[in-house]
Q: What sequence folds into this?
């Protein structure tokens, strides 16, 4: 079997006096889309930020592509091939869409073919190419944030709540984009509350509760078991399509 691209082993994260992650064990297989589910406050965003080095793990290992990246600085982790799309739609508001994407291109000028590929999913970016990103709607800013993360090939994409505030038509484009990202050999770890998106995209799933992983397995297993959904999440995915 192929070695996982990312493995968290016994990861603890403290933020001030709060002990948020309490021994997280998480495996992200190479070349698929893994989904991280859980109630609000379970520790999902903290997990992504800990992987990215934005918050430092106080204990445990974060193994990425054969190397322990726990303790590394965020820019070093990004250079290793990980991109992060936060829920906050982090864009440079005073810069144009074009300038936002140019800043995200670490290896020189933007690849024209890749840009056209991105425009195919998010045509609004081409329309507003020379507009300040701060003038865009929330959904359009989310498109910029995702485009920044995929403007160059990455090994791993960490995405936090990408469909929040997006119209259904844009969500369909986003689903297509993530599928093509996977087909282009980028692994995705996705935190998402839109369960229809989760069922459509996810290959594997892990469920968090109170700073720990309480379930992990194939997405098809969870999506097909209403009782398990109720037990782990307190709801049925079928009720939230």
A:
């Amino acid at each position: 079997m192929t070695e996982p691209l990312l493995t968290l082993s016994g990861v603890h994260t403290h933020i001030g006096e709060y002990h948020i992650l309490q021994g997280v064990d998480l495996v992200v297989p190479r070349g698929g889309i893994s989904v991280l589910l859980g109630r609000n406050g379970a520790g999902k965003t903290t997990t992504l930020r800990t992987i990215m080095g934005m918050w430092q793990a106080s204990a445990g290992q974060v193994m990425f592509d054969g190397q322990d990246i726990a303790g590394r600085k965020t820019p070093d982790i990004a250079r290793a091939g990980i991109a992060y799309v936060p829920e906050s739609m982090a864009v440079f508001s005073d810069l144009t869409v074009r300038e936002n994407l140019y800043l995200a291109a670490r290896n020189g000028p933007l690849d024209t073919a890749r840009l056209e590929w991105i425009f195919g999913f998010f045509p609004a970016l081409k329309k507003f190419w020379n507009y300040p990103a701060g003038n865009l709607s929330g959904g359009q800013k989310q498109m910029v944030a995702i485009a920044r993360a995929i403007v160059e090939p990455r090994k791993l994409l960490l995405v936090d709540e990408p469909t929040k505030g997006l119209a259904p038509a844009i969500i369909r484009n986003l689903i297509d984009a993530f599928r093509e990202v996977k087909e282009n050999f980028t692994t995705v770890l996705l935190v998402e509350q839109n369960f229809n998106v989760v069922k459509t995209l996810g290959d594997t799933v892990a469920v968090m509760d109170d700073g720990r992983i309480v379930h992990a397995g194939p997405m098809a297993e969870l999506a097909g078991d209403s009782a398990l959904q109720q037990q782990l999440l307190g709801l049925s995915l079928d009720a939230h399509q």
